[in-house]
Design a protein that fits this description.
4 copies of one chain form a homotetramer.
Chain A lengths: L20 E6 L5 H10 L7 E8 L2 E8 L2 H10 L8 E7 L14 E5 L2 E11 L2 H10 L9 H28 L2 E9 L2 E6 L8 E5 L2 E5 L3 H4 L4 E5 L4 E6 L2 E7 L7 E2 H7 L5 E2 L2 E2 H15 L6 E4 L5 H11 L7 E3 L12 H11 E3 L1 H4 L3 E6 L6 H12 L4 E6 L27 H8 L3 E4 L2 H8 L6 E2 L1 H4 L1 E2 L7 E2 L8
Parallel strand pairs in A: 14-23, 17-20, 20-21, 21-22, 24-25
Antiparallel strand pairs in A: 1-4, 1-10, 2-3, 2-4, 5-6, 6-7, 7-8, 8-12, 9-10, 9-11, 12-13, 15-16, 18-19
Helix pairs in contact in A: 3-4, 7-8, 7-13, 9-11
């Protein structure tokens, strides 16, 4: 929580990894610019810092930059100071704590007796603090407080002891939580996904390049085609143009994060066989069935509620309209660090369209509510523009418990829904009515088996044992 | 064209002012932060540079910054280095030529025998080069090549000779073209709009503050209420809490820029009595009536074609879907300087949603086409994702002639529609069918009299005499 | 005093020009890099901002940068964004007021009916405020509050009325104070020096290049040879490889600034026939004769007192030693803006050499004292390192009055010597004895006629009429 | 040589540590600003990057910055983002290879089973590559390629196995080469100097603060008093206001670097009982005795040859004069990275004083010659200013072999003196005569026993076994 090493900001600490973007490309030509371009398409998964690590001539070197991919790498690209190697990985970091900090950015690199190793990681290792202490006891020094460094050092150790295949397997049997990883051991690349498959990881091909990435857009943008998802528990070796599954460590219970479908992923992504756009469309449809409202117009909270509002209106044959204009030059609220920014941004970000709102009974649709502060302000804003009634409809269930697997929802007492009835929440945001989608509705919309999803933040029961939290009894890992 | 003075970039010149944002606030408390916030809401009207000029204690001082309002002023706000005065003006500069350049940014200031003067200008003075030469002959030195400096020096001269009211009038009788202006003469502020009313200018009030701005969002954001539009040819004095119309210089022919409704302004703005969102909705409706298409789904080019696509689908009772995902972290194509950025950005910016596109007959709706390069790429992108048919529908007429009044469409041979039939354009972008809205449909959608709009870029006939161009015969200025 | 226009810093104003560096080169190949290099050698004359203006293809363009020449122009040179013209001028700005500010930096450019004009100016126009008001009355707008802009506009006006030669002459008859100028009227360059010759200006040649500069080092560094000083009142046209004296406006009384010899200029410069190093050597010699001290060692305040201390010791056959180490990485005290920096810097800047100081009777020699704060701290520092006696010797007379001609000594009550006896000053700095060189000693050391020097800051009598100050009766200007 | 990890610059590698600055302060109040100020006085020992690590509340955090101490830390100090702890260490990095790089900057931090550890190191571990490989074999991962990381990990390992005292001792028995270190283990600080005492390390006190630093100026500047040098091989614990010598690991042979006295250290420093200024004075005196020259004037190469030239002149009763003016705004040649900078800087840096040089027979004194390029240019410059004869005198012996202990003289074939006679060198630099001080003269000047100095770069025989080099037989380490 409060550990910090080699950090430029002496005041604020770095948290363990959150939801991030992972890319790896193994080709026959220099891959730097392709990785850079892929990272740009995954910018929504992390805006704080980025990095690219490239193998060349026996060594792995990295460039790490602050801020947006485009801006950070600009001077390197302009001056031609980019690595020439043909195998490399990239990472975007999403962080909500503290000042911007390049040190915590991935990829993380170490030099070992086996050569150089590098890792890009998306997810969150729930037992990393214990593992960190154990590795320290074994003489491993740490230079950051990230779970990524712990994972890489654990991998280095078990691989050295047992070889690549068995070593990765041993590490996976020890690591708990969410991890979708691109790993380099010298020039060999590995795609690793935790046995429960919390976070997405997808495999593609473009000419001679084999690509692994968090989402398919990163493959599309470099002209590639998706091959398939990396399976939960699967470890794939990518070397010399060959894709080889080393093994798949099966779990009794898959736990894909439902929030990727609700909010986090790009709508054009197809994750574990399910298109995100289609899930969102179904979320709106099912929300309409469960919680119809009598009103004049359905409007979304842009951009997050748009697809759901559209299908909500379509299902109920209501008018759909874009009643809130979103200022293109204000950043995505959810992803901005710091409370102050989150509050100040709302005012500049959204403005009602008078003709759509004035005198109207409105259904206001959004994808989810975490704290409720933005929703409260939007309701108040719509009223000040003459809205007659406002019926809030949320296309996902109440969030009542923290996420331990990579989404920045950690603090229970920030959740507006915690220990409140729908009516209490409705009163707090100042709406005329308010309804959430049910958990059943969510599962039906995503179109997966309930046992394939992690819905811990909705139920408080988690697919992995978390100290002080309830475990989802169906979900014990078999090994 | 190629003149340059006091310019940090020695290679590229500055063009005369383009479409920009203007703000002026006159209050009883320090206005800097209010102007800053207003400028942020008008960021879409100019992202190259910004400035704020404040009157304090007998003098006017200015801060000018590069880039986005938010980023440029950050160090000044953080260090508390912001002026304390209660009257001030602000400006966002939109530029398409050359490197970023703070010198050309507004507001422009001069010190004269009458005291300090400052001006924020949106529009384009068509006869500024002649006026500049004439003023030089009269001994006026110039430090930039902008039309704004010419206008301010002309105003300074005529005001000195004839007093404020008659002086402004004299200048307006000489100035040709588009100008919506916030002017400061010491602590007195003036809102000036050219007699044809090309560019918007709106008046509002918030507590003790009187506000003039390019669009109403700038008034909303500081908690104000719109009073009314500044009338074409109207000159308003704002001083000491009083709003006084000095005079209104009438033109035989009003010429509101149709492109503000089609693309440029925010949809929540109400300009000259017409809500932009509503105009865009009507543009889609009338496009549907004029050019229906048999297809499975209507999809917009986001974000510019969304409202029009929605009403197009609604009018024809077709399915509407967001079939193209827009990457939030790539900037608005149209407003980015440089050809390279324009091209490179398309690839990163848009990605199709497979389930919406694959095997479908698609109506693709956008607000307008200038060069056609982006449209060409989108059509090709949709085909590669399995679109069966693509019917392009454009919710405005063909652009065939340059704009001389502030929109960055200067070079005839860049227009895809120049000397081409619809079928030729259709072939060039690779669509199955293609149709534009008619000029009549455009006028009906905006809901104004044809004689109140400037449609020079659609007809090649202009409401002001332009050397080498045809004049719209109905539009001779009476004075 | 407190006027400010077009200024990035809204809090602090810009003062009129102070002692600055001027360079002009007229050649047959691109001159930008030569001007840049010359400016680097004159960095001691101004570190706040720099600029280069180049004539090319009918126009004059400028690049202006903040801070040191080397750092400011670096990105332009690296990216190859430097002008290609073969005639140009440069300027380093020295400023002591406010934050760094690029707008006040020279060269100043205007576009007029005669074409583009640019000026680099070193000195200070004493009647610029009146002239500025008069020009304003004549309709000339001002965009800065500098005397440089006043001078250029006056020149533009009189040249237009009377042609170049008579126009410059007319302006010079009106302008009062100090000015050494490089002027460009289109591609023609003019070197102008005020009739009293306050500030240096020197002419040189290097291959095809004709060079005018504040000091000869700027000529040496580009491989050139000095031709001669520009004479007081002389106006030289440099065009097409020809050097032509247009006229020389003679004054009854020359007034070379004595402080150039004492402190400001580089020791390797030869100004008006007198080598600065030699003058400084003589200042020490004469100081020794006037104010010998019985002591063990003579030590200089580095770097400013070194030459004088050396000749002082040599004259008295005393031991000379470098008893104070100067940290190379702390900047020159006198030239740093802000009181805080001046104070904090002393501590980091100097440290005594124990073996030289401990138990010794020391003669401490410096070139001059303005405020005395640094001297006070040095005396205290030496005592803390065991100095037995400290005899302060200053190789110039007491400064008791402001400079109005370009040296940053404006505020009487900051002068330690004002209304104090030598003993009082000695007590204040904490020395055992203290002596200044006499005015006669100064004049003898520089080796010029008393009537050829401005010693206004030593006597309070000035060679130009200054409101509220005594005039040196011998010095009325004849025209 | 060419290994690189976690490095922002993908093209150039980082070399092992070179001569650097080390500071550590243990007090009762926050120490950050004191460490910062101390580092400023030691800026001459490293200008590439700096860092400060502070213990606070169970953890050690660091701030690392690029470039000069003053500039790098400015934003942190301005925003108040500085650590509050009362124990901390600082480091300035001197580097000659590649682009600026913050990652290689000290202090280096790790988190271990014993808590956080941090190290600041000056020197060069000659066997670090072997140790790095051995530690890798033991499972220690490396994130940089510096010798500092190797040293810290070795210390962490041996301390964990044997306790602090014996652990440090064990590490010192393994480490070869030069190291003057400030080490933190949690809140305990240790000053460690290698048994041969290559690099300086000095202990002081200021009120409650105990200070360890590379040179005494760092103690003086915070108002402290020197206690004594840390002895070769001594390990001192500084904790809770107590200074305790844990042990002293004696070597048969002390090896203080002679180059600290000749060039590197500040003249005001007293290192191992010998004042640097006094050594330099003696170097000049002995040079005069060994190699007198018949000439008119002795001039130094400023600033490095000044003291030696002064005593040379004094010894021979010759005239001493500052015949070369050094531009204050060009950086120290020796310490600037890159060949280009080194060459370009000479031209801008030095200019002769005509009256001192013209027609004169000159003795030109410098402290040392490494490559000879600068000397060559100075001789040529002096001739072009009319010098009649130039007699080069170097106040140290010929450098003929690389330094392996922290001075950036690595490449034999860059040394001008390699395999050349004095006459050949004289011819190459273009002088009339040239002489070096003898090794005996050097030793006598420094005033130490020959067996107490490392003169490996003068003889090619080193006090530590270096692969491929001769060992100084007198110097075998006893353990």
């Amino acid at each position: 929580m409060d550990f910090q090493l080699q950090d430029y900001d002496p005041i604020n600490g770095l948290k363990p990894s959150e939801n991030c973007a992972v890319v790896g490309i193994c080709g026959k030509d220099p891959v730097f610019l392709k990785i850079y371009t892929s990272l740009r398409t995954l910018q929504h998964r992390g805006q704080e810092a980025s990095g690219v690590a490239i193998y060349d001539n026996g060594k792995i070197n990295a460039i790490k930059v602050d801020g947006l991919v485009h801006e950070g790498f600009k001077p390197y690209i302009e001056k031609g100071l980019t690595p020439k190697g043909i195998v490399g990985i990239g990472h975007n970091r999403y962080s909500t704590a503290g000042m911007k900090n390049i040190t915590g950015a991935g990829p993380f690199l170490i030099s070992t007796a086996m050569g150089d190793m590098a890792i890009s990681h998306n997810g969150e290792i729930t037992n990393y603090e214990i593992l960190r202490d154990e590795l320290k006891e074994l003489g491993v020094p740490f230079v950051t407080k990230t779970d990524t460094e712990v994972m890489l050092n654990l991998l280095a150790r078990t691989i050295r002891q047992r070889g690549i295949k068995n070593g990765i397997k041993s590490s996976m049997e020890i690591l708990q939580g969410a991890y979708s990883v691109a790993l380099m051991i010298g020039e060999r690349m590995y795609a690793i996904r935790d046995p429960k498959g919390f976070r997405p990881l997808i495999l593609g091909k473009s000419g001679n390049d084999i690509i692994v990435a968090s989402e398919s857009a990163a493959i599309d943008v470099v002209g590639g085609k998706v091959i398939r998802d990396v399976q939960p528990g699967e470890v794939i070796e990518i070397f010399n143009g060959e894709i080889t599954t080393l093994f798949t460590l099966r779990s009794q219970r898959i736990s894909h994060c439902m929030f990727e479908y609700v909010y986090f992923a790009r709508p054009d992504s197809i994750i574990d066989g399910t298109e995100v756009y289609n899930s969102r469309y179904q979320l709106g449809t099912n929300l309409a069935r469960e919680a119809p409202a009598e009103a004049d117009v359905v409007i979304p909270v842009p951009d997050s509620g748009r697809t759901q509002a559209l299908s909500y209106a379509s299902e109920l044959k209501m008018e759909y309209s874009e009643g809130l204009f979103k200022n293109r030059y204000s950043e995505r609220t959810f992803i901005m660090p710091g409370n102050m920014e989150r509050d100040g941004a709302v005012k500049l970000k959204l403005n009602p369209i008078k003709s759509v709102v004035n005198g109207k009974r409105i259904v206001l649709v959004d994808d989810s509510i975490v704290r409720g502060t933005t929703m409260k302000r939007i309701v108040s804003l719509l009223r000040s523009f003459g809205a007659r009634e406002i019926h809030v409809r949320i296309a996902s269930p109440k969030i009542v418990a923290p996420c331990y697997f990579g989404v920045d929802m950690k603090t229970r007492d920030q959740f507006i829904a915690l220990n409140k009835t729908d009516q209490q929440i409705c009163d707090e945001v100042g709406a005329d009515s308010l309804a959430y989608l049910s958990i059943e509705g969510l599962i039906k919309s995503i179109g997966m088996d309930k046992k394939s999803l992690c819905i811990g933040c909705l139920t408080g029961e988690y697919p992995v044992k978390i100290l002080g939290e309830k475990e989802d009894v169906q979900t014990t890992l078999e090994f």
